[in-house]
Automatic annotation (TrEMBL):
Pfam families: p450
Organism this protein belongs to: Streptomyces camponoticapitis
Family of the protein in this entry: Belongs to the cytochrome P450 family.
Protein name: Cytochrome P450
CDD domains listed in its UniProt record: CYP107-like (cd11029)
Source organism, top-level taxon: Bacteria
Length: 424
Protein backbone atom coordinates (compact mmCIF):
# COMPACT_ATOMS: atom_id res chain seq x y z
CA UNK A 1 0.00 0.00 0.00
CA UNK A 2 1.54 3.30 -1.07
CA UNK A 3 1.95 6.14 1.40
CA UNK A 4 -0.36 9.09 1.04
CA UNK A 5 1.24 12.41 0.13
CA UNK A 6 1.72 14.80 3.02
CA UNK A 7 0.00 18.12 2.20
CA UNK A 8 1.76 19.89 5.06
CA UNK A 9 5.15 18.97 3.57
CA UNK A 10 4.11 20.44 0.22
CA UNK A 11 3.03 23.67 1.95
CA UNK A 12 6.34 23.85 3.80
CA UNK A 13 8.27 23.38 0.55
CA UNK A 14 6.19 26.07 -1.15
CA UNK A 15 6.80 28.49 1.73
CA UNK A 16 10.53 27.83 1.56
CA UNK A 17 10.58 28.68 -2.16
CA UNK A 18 8.36 31.77 -1.92
CA UNK A 19 10.10 35.17 -1.91
CA UNK A 20 10.88 36.41 1.58
CA UNK A 21 8.70 39.38 2.56
CA UNK A 22 10.83 42.11 4.13
CA UNK A 23 9.22 43.41 7.31
CA UNK A 24 8.71 47.19 6.93
CA UNK A 25 8.69 47.60 10.70
CA UNK A 26 12.27 46.37 10.85
CA UNK A 27 13.15 44.77 14.14
CA UNK A 28 16.19 42.61 14.88
CA UNK A 29 17.49 41.33 11.54
CA UNK A 30 19.45 38.32 12.66
CA UNK A 31 16.64 35.76 12.86
CA UNK A 32 15.44 36.81 9.40
CA UNK A 33 19.02 36.69 8.12
CA UNK A 34 19.43 33.11 9.35
CA UNK A 35 16.28 32.14 7.47
CA UNK A 36 17.54 33.83 4.32
CA UNK A 37 21.04 32.38 4.55
CA UNK A 38 19.54 28.90 4.88
CA UNK A 39 18.08 29.41 1.39
CA UNK A 40 21.39 30.44 -0.14
CA UNK A 41 23.65 33.42 -0.69
CA UNK A 42 21.10 35.19 -2.93
CA UNK A 43 17.37 35.28 -2.21
CA UNK A 44 14.25 36.78 -3.81
CA UNK A 45 12.46 39.23 -1.52
CA UNK A 46 9.34 41.40 -1.60
CA UNK A 47 9.70 45.03 -0.57
CA UNK A 48 6.96 47.31 0.78
CA UNK A 49 4.35 48.01 -1.90
CA UNK A 50 4.74 44.50 -3.35
CA UNK A 51 7.91 45.47 -5.21
CA UNK A 52 9.87 42.39 -6.28
CA UNK A 53 13.56 42.51 -5.47
CA UNK A 54 16.57 40.37 -4.57
CA UNK A 55 18.91 40.36 -1.57
CA UNK A 56 22.54 39.30 -1.71
CA UNK A 57 23.32 38.01 1.77
CA UNK A 58 26.26 35.60 1.59
CA UNK A 59 29.66 37.17 2.27
CA UNK A 60 31.47 35.93 -0.84
CA UNK A 61 28.47 36.52 -3.10
CA UNK A 62 28.05 40.06 -1.76
CA UNK A 63 31.73 40.85 -2.24
CA UNK A 64 31.50 39.67 -5.85
CA UNK A 65 28.26 41.55 -6.48
CA UNK A 66 29.42 44.87 -5.01
CA UNK A 67 32.38 45.06 -7.38
CA UNK A 68 30.83 43.42 -10.46
CA UNK A 69 31.27 45.51 -13.65
CA UNK A 70 27.71 44.68 -14.77
CA UNK A 71 26.07 46.11 -11.64
CA UNK A 72 24.94 49.74 -11.62
CA UNK A 73 23.68 52.26 -9.07
CA UNK A 74 21.83 54.70 -11.33
CA UNK A 75 18.03 54.69 -11.16
CA UNK A 76 17.82 54.55 -14.97
CA UNK A 77 18.62 50.84 -14.56
CA UNK A 78 15.68 50.23 -12.16
CA UNK A 79 13.15 48.64 -14.52
CA UNK A 80 10.02 49.07 -12.40
CA UNK A 81 10.86 52.73 -11.70
CA UNK A 82 11.60 53.46 -15.35
CA UNK A 83 8.29 51.88 -16.37
CA UNK A 84 6.32 54.02 -13.90
CA UNK A 85 5.41 51.20 -11.51
CA UNK A 86 6.98 52.85 -8.42
CA UNK A 87 4.64 55.50 -6.93
CA UNK A 88 5.62 58.75 -5.26
CA UNK A 89 5.84 58.22 -1.54
CA UNK A 90 7.27 54.72 -1.83
CA UNK A 91 9.39 54.56 1.35
CA UNK A 92 12.57 53.48 -0.46
CA UNK A 93 12.28 55.80 -3.45
CA UNK A 94 14.75 58.38 -2.14
CA UNK A 95 17.48 55.73 -2.07
CA UNK A 96 16.96 55.24 -5.79
CA UNK A 97 16.37 58.79 -7.01
CA UNK A 98 18.53 61.10 -4.89
CA UNK A 99 21.29 62.60 -7.02
CA UNK A 100 24.69 61.96 -5.52
CA UNK A 101 27.57 59.52 -5.20
CA UNK A 102 25.47 56.56 -4.10
CA UNK A 103 23.30 56.69 -7.23
CA UNK A 104 25.97 57.59 -9.77
CA UNK A 105 28.01 55.36 -12.05
CA UNK A 106 31.19 55.65 -14.09
CA UNK A 107 32.47 59.14 -14.81
CA UNK A 108 29.67 60.81 -12.81
CA UNK A 109 30.53 58.75 -9.76
CA UNK A 110 34.24 59.50 -10.07
CA UNK A 111 33.51 63.23 -10.53
CA UNK A 112 31.27 63.45 -7.44
CA UNK A 113 33.49 61.27 -5.30
CA UNK A 114 36.59 63.29 -6.18
CA UNK A 115 34.86 66.51 -5.08
CA UNK A 116 34.06 65.09 -1.64
CA UNK A 117 37.07 62.83 -1.08
CA UNK A 118 39.37 65.75 -0.25
CA UNK A 119 37.51 66.14 3.04
CA UNK A 120 38.21 62.53 3.99
CA UNK A 121 41.91 62.09 3.26
CA UNK A 122 43.93 60.44 6.03
CA UNK A 123 45.49 63.81 6.84
CA UNK A 124 42.15 65.64 7.07
CA UNK A 125 40.57 62.90 9.18
CA UNK A 126 43.54 62.80 11.56
CA UNK A 127 43.28 66.59 11.88
CA UNK A 128 39.77 66.05 13.28
CA UNK A 129 41.02 63.79 16.08
CA UNK A 130 41.46 66.62 18.56
CA UNK A 131 37.95 67.91 17.91
CA UNK A 132 36.45 64.42 18.27
CA UNK A 133 38.26 63.98 21.59
CA UNK A 134 37.09 67.40 22.76
CA UNK A 135 33.43 66.75 21.88
CA UNK A 136 33.63 63.30 23.49
CA UNK A 137 34.94 64.77 26.74
CA UNK A 138 32.19 67.40 26.79
CA UNK A 139 29.51 64.77 26.25
CA UNK A 140 30.90 62.54 28.99
CA UNK A 141 30.82 65.49 31.40
CA UNK A 142 27.21 66.01 30.36
CA UNK A 143 26.35 62.36 31.06
CA UNK A 144 27.82 62.60 34.55
CA UNK A 145 25.91 65.81 35.24
CA UNK A 146 22.65 64.36 33.94
CA UNK A 147 23.01 61.27 36.12
CA UNK A 148 23.67 63.38 39.20
CA UNK A 149 20.64 65.58 38.50
CA UNK A 150 17.99 63.17 37.24
CA UNK A 151 18.92 59.83 38.77
CA UNK A 152 21.03 56.93 37.66
CA UNK A 153 19.62 56.15 34.19
CA UNK A 154 20.60 58.11 31.07
CA UNK A 155 19.81 57.52 27.39
CA UNK A 156 23.26 56.87 25.99
CA UNK A 157 22.04 56.91 22.38
CA UNK A 158 20.41 60.33 22.58
CA UNK A 159 22.92 61.96 24.94
CA UNK A 160 26.21 60.53 23.64
CA UNK A 161 26.13 58.28 20.57
CA UNK A 162 24.07 60.76 18.52
CA UNK A 163 25.55 64.21 19.24
CA UNK A 164 29.15 63.10 18.63
CA UNK A 165 28.92 62.08 14.94
CA UNK A 166 26.14 64.55 14.19
CA UNK A 167 28.19 67.41 15.61
CA UNK A 168 31.33 66.38 13.73
CA UNK A 169 29.69 65.90 10.33
CA UNK A 170 27.76 69.16 10.68
CA UNK A 171 30.97 71.02 11.53
CA UNK A 172 32.62 69.42 8.52
CA UNK A 173 29.75 70.55 6.29
CA UNK A 174 29.27 73.95 7.90
CA UNK A 175 25.73 73.19 9.12
CA UNK A 176 24.50 75.48 11.90
CA UNK A 177 23.73 73.78 15.21
CA UNK A 178 20.11 74.96 15.05
CA UNK A 179 19.47 72.53 12.16
CA UNK A 180 20.93 69.42 13.76
CA UNK A 181 17.93 68.04 15.67
CA UNK A 182 15.66 68.57 12.68
CA UNK A 183 18.11 66.90 10.31
CA UNK A 184 18.38 63.85 12.58
CA UNK A 185 14.59 63.55 12.81
CA UNK A 186 14.19 63.85 9.04
CA UNK A 187 17.05 61.40 8.44
CA UNK A 188 15.20 58.83 10.55
CA UNK A 189 12.11 59.30 8.39
CA UNK A 190 14.10 58.98 5.16
CA UNK A 191 15.57 55.68 6.38
CA UNK A 192 12.27 54.32 7.77
CA UNK A 193 10.64 51.54 5.75
CA UNK A 194 7.25 51.57 7.48
CA UNK A 195 6.49 55.24 6.79
CA UNK A 196 3.30 56.31 4.99
CA UNK A 197 3.54 57.79 1.47
CA UNK A 198 2.36 61.17 2.75
CA UNK A 199 4.95 61.26 5.53
CA UNK A 200 7.69 60.06 3.19
CA UNK A 201 7.01 62.84 0.69
CA UNK A 202 6.80 65.42 3.49
CA UNK A 203 10.12 64.27 4.95
CA UNK A 204 11.80 64.59 1.57
CA UNK A 205 10.38 68.09 1.02
CA UNK A 206 11.41 69.19 4.50
CA UNK A 207 14.97 67.88 4.34
CA UNK A 208 15.50 69.45 0.91
CA UNK A 209 14.21 72.75 2.34
CA UNK A 210 16.59 72.58 5.32
CA UNK A 211 19.60 71.69 3.16
CA UNK A 212 18.70 74.41 0.68
CA UNK A 213 18.75 76.87 3.59
CA UNK A 214 22.18 75.52 4.59
CA UNK A 215 23.44 75.95 1.02
CA UNK A 216 22.03 79.49 0.86
CA UNK A 217 23.72 80.38 4.14
CA UNK A 218 27.07 79.03 2.96
CA UNK A 219 26.68 80.84 -0.37
CA UNK A 220 26.17 84.14 1.43
CA UNK A 221 28.78 83.49 4.13
CA UNK A 222 31.31 80.94 2.82
CA UNK A 223 33.69 79.34 5.29
CA UNK A 224 36.35 76.65 5.53
CA UNK A 225 33.76 73.89 5.30
CA UNK A 226 32.95 71.28 2.68
CA UNK A 227 29.63 72.84 1.67
CA UNK A 228 31.33 76.13 0.88
CA UNK A 229 33.97 74.27 -1.14
CA UNK A 230 31.29 72.41 -3.13
CA UNK A 231 29.42 75.65 -3.80
CA UNK A 232 32.65 77.28 -5.01
CA UNK A 233 33.20 74.41 -7.43
CA UNK A 234 29.61 74.72 -8.69
CA UNK A 235 29.94 78.47 -9.17
CA UNK A 236 33.28 78.17 -10.95
CA UNK A 237 32.07 75.52 -13.34
CA UNK A 238 28.34 74.79 -13.47
CA UNK A 239 28.95 71.52 -15.27
CA UNK A 240 30.90 70.06 -12.36
CA UNK A 241 28.14 70.05 -9.72
CA UNK A 242 24.48 70.78 -10.36
CA UNK A 243 22.15 72.25 -7.77
CA UNK A 244 20.37 68.90 -7.37
CA UNK A 245 23.70 67.13 -6.94
CA UNK A 246 24.75 69.62 -4.25
CA UNK A 247 21.59 69.01 -2.20
CA UNK A 248 21.77 65.26 -2.85
CA UNK A 249 25.40 65.16 -1.74
CA UNK A 250 24.60 67.05 1.46
CA UNK A 251 21.65 64.74 2.17
CA UNK A 252 23.70 61.60 1.70
CA UNK A 253 26.58 62.89 3.81
CA UNK A 254 24.31 63.99 6.65
CA UNK A 255 22.57 60.61 6.79
CA UNK A 256 25.63 58.41 6.23
CA UNK A 257 27.86 60.71 8.28
CA UNK A 258 25.93 60.30 11.50
CA UNK A 259 23.43 57.40 11.30
CA UNK A 260 26.08 54.74 10.66
CA UNK A 261 28.39 55.89 13.47
CA UNK A 262 25.44 56.43 15.81
CA UNK A 263 24.32 52.84 15.27
CA UNK A 264 27.89 51.55 15.50
CA UNK A 265 28.51 53.14 18.92
CA UNK A 266 25.09 52.07 20.19
CA UNK A 267 25.51 48.48 19.00
CA UNK A 268 29.05 48.24 20.40
CA UNK A 269 27.94 49.37 23.86
CA UNK A 270 25.08 46.85 23.83
CA UNK A 271 27.45 44.09 22.75
CA UNK A 272 30.07 44.85 25.41
CA UNK A 273 27.50 45.12 28.18
CA UNK A 274 25.98 41.76 27.19
CA UNK A 275 29.44 40.19 26.89
CA UNK A 276 31.32 41.42 29.95
CA UNK A 277 34.08 38.86 29.35
CA UNK A 278 34.86 40.60 26.05
CA UNK A 279 34.85 43.99 27.74
CA UNK A 280 37.32 42.67 30.33
CA UNK A 281 39.66 41.52 27.55
CA UNK A 282 39.80 45.08 26.22
CA UNK A 283 40.09 46.68 29.65
CA UNK A 284 42.97 44.31 30.45
CA UNK A 285 44.78 45.12 27.22
CA UNK A 286 44.23 41.70 25.61
CA UNK A 287 42.27 43.28 22.75
CA UNK A 288 41.99 46.83 21.43
CA UNK A 289 39.12 49.25 21.09
CA UNK A 290 39.73 49.07 17.36
CA UNK A 291 39.04 45.33 17.62
CA UNK A 292 35.73 46.14 19.28
CA UNK A 293 34.78 48.46 16.44
CA UNK A 294 35.64 45.91 13.75
CA UNK A 295 33.86 43.04 15.50
CA UNK A 296 30.75 45.17 16.04
CA UNK A 297 30.76 46.13 12.36
CA UNK A 298 30.80 42.43 11.48
CA UNK A 299 28.57 41.00 14.20
CA UNK A 300 25.89 43.69 14.37
CA UNK A 301 26.34 45.85 11.27
CA UNK A 302 24.98 49.42 11.61
CA UNK A 303 23.35 48.96 8.20
CA UNK A 304 21.32 45.84 7.64
CA UNK A 305 20.04 45.93 4.04
CA UNK A 306 21.19 48.83 1.89
CA UNK A 307 19.26 49.82 -1.28
CA UNK A 308 19.93 49.61 -4.26
CA UNK A 309 22.02 48.15 -7.05
CA UNK A 310 20.77 46.88 -10.43
CA UNK A 311 22.25 44.29 -12.78
CA UNK A 312 22.63 45.75 -16.27
CA UNK A 313 22.09 42.26 -17.70
CA UNK A 314 20.76 38.98 -16.37
CA UNK A 315 23.44 38.13 -13.85
CA UNK A 316 24.20 34.83 -12.15
CA UNK A 317 25.55 35.17 -8.61
CA UNK A 318 26.33 32.04 -6.62
CA UNK A 319 24.15 30.01 -8.96
CA UNK A 320 21.10 32.31 -8.76
CA UNK A 321 20.00 34.48 -11.67
CA UNK A 322 19.24 38.11 -10.83
CA UNK A 323 17.23 39.50 -13.76
CA UNK A 324 18.36 42.70 -15.43
CA UNK A 325 16.94 45.83 -13.81
CA UNK A 326 15.98 44.14 -10.51
CA UNK A 327 16.50 46.27 -7.39
CA UNK A 328 18.98 44.47 -5.14
CA UNK A 329 19.57 44.92 -1.42
CA UNK A 330 23.10 44.54 -0.06
CA UNK A 331 22.66 42.36 3.04
CA UNK A 332 25.50 43.57 5.23
CA UNK A 333 24.19 42.27 8.57
CA UNK A 334 23.57 38.82 7.07
CA UNK A 335 26.99 38.65 5.41
CA UNK A 336 28.61 39.49 8.74
CA UNK A 337 27.28 36.29 10.28
CA UNK A 338 27.75 34.04 7.26
CA UNK A 339 29.36 30.86 8.62
CA UNK A 340 30.84 30.06 5.21
CA UNK A 341 33.09 33.13 5.55
CA UNK A 342 33.40 33.68 9.29
CA UNK A 343 33.34 30.13 10.63
CA UNK A 344 30.95 28.10 12.74
CA UNK A 345 31.22 30.70 15.51
CA UNK A 346 30.07 33.55 13.25
CA UNK A 347 27.11 34.24 15.56
CA UNK A 348 29.48 34.77 18.51
CA UNK A 349 30.78 38.21 19.52
CA UNK A 350 34.56 37.77 19.80
CA UNK A 351 36.82 40.83 19.89
CA UNK A 352 39.93 38.65 19.41
CA UNK A 353 38.72 37.42 16.03
CA UNK A 354 41.05 39.69 14.05
CA UNK A 355 44.12 39.21 16.26
CA UNK A 356 45.78 36.62 14.02
CA UNK A 357 44.98 38.44 10.78
CA UNK A 358 43.47 35.27 9.30
CA UNK A 359 39.78 36.12 9.77
CA UNK A 360 37.72 37.18 6.76
CA UNK A 361 37.25 40.94 6.60
CA UNK A 362 33.68 42.15 6.99
CA UNK A 363 31.88 44.11 4.27
CA UNK A 364 29.85 46.40 6.52
CA UNK A 365 31.41 49.57 5.12
CA UNK A 366 31.01 48.40 1.54
CA UNK A 367 33.37 47.12 -1.10
CA UNK A 368 34.53 48.24 -4.51
CA UNK A 369 34.05 51.65 -6.09
CA UNK A 370 31.33 52.66 -3.62
CA UNK A 371 33.29 51.74 -0.48
CA UNK A 372 32.28 54.12 2.33
CA UNK A 373 34.20 57.37 1.87
CA UNK A 374 33.88 58.27 5.56
CA UNK A 375 34.98 54.88 6.90
CA UNK A 376 38.15 56.24 8.51
CA UNK A 377 36.24 58.99 10.27
CA UNK A 378 33.54 56.60 11.49
CA UNK A 379 36.15 54.19 12.85
CA UNK A 380 38.04 56.98 14.60
CA UNK A 381 34.90 58.46 16.17
CA UNK A 382 33.69 55.08 17.43
CA UNK A 383 37.09 54.03 18.77
CA UNK A 384 37.59 57.27 20.69
CA UNK A 385 33.99 57.27 21.95
CA UNK A 386 34.11 53.70 23.29
CA UNK A 387 37.55 53.99 24.86
CA UNK A 388 36.74 57.25 26.66
CA UNK A 389 33.25 56.08 27.67
CA UNK A 390 34.35 52.86 29.37
CA UNK A 391 37.46 54.50 30.85
CA UNK A 392 35.27 57.15 32.48
CA UNK A 393 32.49 54.70 33.41
CA UNK A 394 34.00 51.18 33.57
CA UNK A 395 30.90 49.72 35.26
CA UNK A 396 28.44 51.19 32.76
CA UNK A 397 25.63 48.75 31.99
CA UNK A 398 22.40 48.62 29.99
CA UNK A 399 19.48 49.25 32.34
CA UNK A 400 16.90 47.02 30.62
CA UNK A 401 16.82 43.66 28.88
CA UNK A 402 17.55 43.41 25.16
CA UNK A 403 13.89 42.56 24.53
CA UNK A 404 12.85 45.86 26.14
CA UNK A 405 14.91 47.98 23.74
CA UNK A 406 12.69 49.38 20.96
CA UNK A 407 14.09 48.58 17.51
CA UNK A 408 14.38 50.90 14.54
CA UNK A 409 11.32 50.85 12.27
CA UNK A 410 13.48 49.99 9.27
CA UNK A 411 15.25 47.09 7.64
CA UNK A 412 17.88 49.53 6.33
CA UNK A 413 19.35 50.78 9.60
CA UNK A 414 20.11 48.25 12.33
CA UNK A 415 19.98 49.42 15.93
CA UNK A 416 17.65 50.44 18.75
CA UNK A 417 15.82 53.71 19.27
CA UNK A 418 16.96 54.24 22.86
CA UNK A 419 19.74 52.90 25.08
CA UNK A 420 19.02 53.49 28.80
CA UNK A 421 22.13 52.80 30.86
CA UNK A 422 23.40 53.09 34.39
CA UNK A 423 26.84 54.66 34.56
CA UNK A 424 27.97 52.81 37.66
Amino acid sequence: MSAKPDPSADLADAAAQAPYRMDPSGGCPHAANATLLARGAVAPVVLPGEVEAMAVIGHDALKEFLSHPDVAKGAAHFTALREGRIPDGWPLKTFATVQGMTTADGDDHRRLRSLVSKAFTSRRVEALRGRVEEVTAELLDGLAATESKDGRIVDLRADFALPLPMGVICELLGVDEKFQDQLHHLSNQIVATDISPEDAMAANRDIVAVLSAVAASRTENPGEDLTSALIAVRDEDGDRLSGHELIGTLLLMIIAGHETTLNLITNAVRALCRHRDQLELVQNGKASWSDVVEETLRWDSPVSFFPFRYPTRDLTVDGTVIPKGTPVLAGYSAAGRDKAAHGDDAAEFDVTRYATGSAARHLSLGHGAHFCLGSSLARMEATIALERLFTRFPDLDVAVTEAELPRHASFVGNSVQRLPVTLG
